[in-house]
Amino acid sequence: MSPRLARLLFNLWPPFLFTGIRVTALTPGFSHARVELRRHWYNRNYVGTHFGGSLFAMTDPFWMVMTLRALGDDYVVWDKAAEIEFIRPGRGTVHATFDLDAATVDAIREATAHGDKHLRWFTTEVVDAAGEPVARVRKQIYVRRKRDRGSAPTPA
Question: For residue 42, is pLDDT > 80?
């Protein structure tokens, strides 16, 4: 799937579409993504700032999808854990960027080379228009090479 089509599908995906979340950039190879959230009447909390669930949702799928795309079909990649720290009220448009570098992908490949599972934490800051952090999201990704079904020992 091309980055252009993936970005369109993300933007039409109901959890993004109905919360005002927009993927504004997705590079070939899925190594970089940028997501923004504009404040609307339907994504504000009781006190008029960004709803925390929307701030978390805008970061949710990216590390898993980007890691899976970087590693390819020989790997199992899942979200394992997540946490969010709210730093200051989110007003106006906020955004988050995700950059998956080649060194990180190589480290994951090395850690899983012998079939071991690997848990990797990624941190993303959601920032306002002035670049000030609004929230910090950590996602833990589970990665393991797929087991070769043909290599199982035969019974004696």
Answer: no
